[in-house]
Sequence to fold (321 residues):
Amino acid sequence: MDYVNLGESGLKVSRACLGAMNFGTSQNAPCNEAQAKRIIDAFLGQGHNFIDTANVYQAGQSEVIVGHAIKEKRHSVILATKARGPQGSGPNDMGTSRLHLNRALDESLKRLDTDYIDLYQMHAWDPDTPIEETMATLDSFVQAGKVRYIGCSNYTGSQIVEAQWAASRQKGTPFIALQPRYSLLARDIEADVLPACQRHGLGMLVYSPLAGGMLTGKYKQGEEPAADTRFGRRNRAGVMGTLNDRNFEIVNAVEQAAGEIGATASAVSIAWCLTRRGVTSVIIGPRTLQQQEECLEGYELELSEMLVKGLSDASRPAGRR
Fold:
């Protein structure tokens, strides 16, 4: 098993990270608790140690399920969760203020049935709270032993810099990780966010490496998405923005590369992400054991330099050399 340090820390994580966004106890959840437990057990049984959830996933049900599944093996799991999203209808029931984060952390600890969180991440920037307040609050969690490390998700390059500077000024705890969207179809972080992470010591846990399933090849150019797919459940305007000619050209390049080496398009897409400088772990969000096994093939796949270059050239954002 390949474990790597997360950012400029001593925390060692597997390159595969299991995203628990689909796990829920309600009838409408994409993956029920029994199936989620099988997925988690299989993931950990193969030696991977990194699980990511959030307090807003399935209205908190995801944290409950993850807590149940890892209860007897908590010491061997690197557990990450997030806060920032709404936890009620009141004016202080969301954001990254001291008041809200203290409430949110305590509730996450209860749902996860644990005394500490290994990586506590801010789910998005909060323009209504001074970053100094947020970073001081997170540092207090670390000092109290409730949190081991802190990170952020969906921050811009300048927001990362502001957060790290605030921690430094206060002689507090800096972020060690960023969780951004990244795939062959979404490479915008390379211009600004990725350099900021590298400059300020953040590892990257990238999510949506399959671009919502488009890079699996399940969507066909000129055809309506099936009703039971992710894009089939979304509004047409939003879907058409993704199912465009440019993106299908990239999908075709992935499928061609996969055919050349006898791999799946999913595995090739994940393997490409792992070749990118600064990427620590790649998050997958399976709903079934089969989906998980198909994705995990990507972590064992080694792409040739020629294939990596071909995919990188085919997916290079417009205007970038």
The CA atoms of residues 131 and 163 lie 6 Å apart.
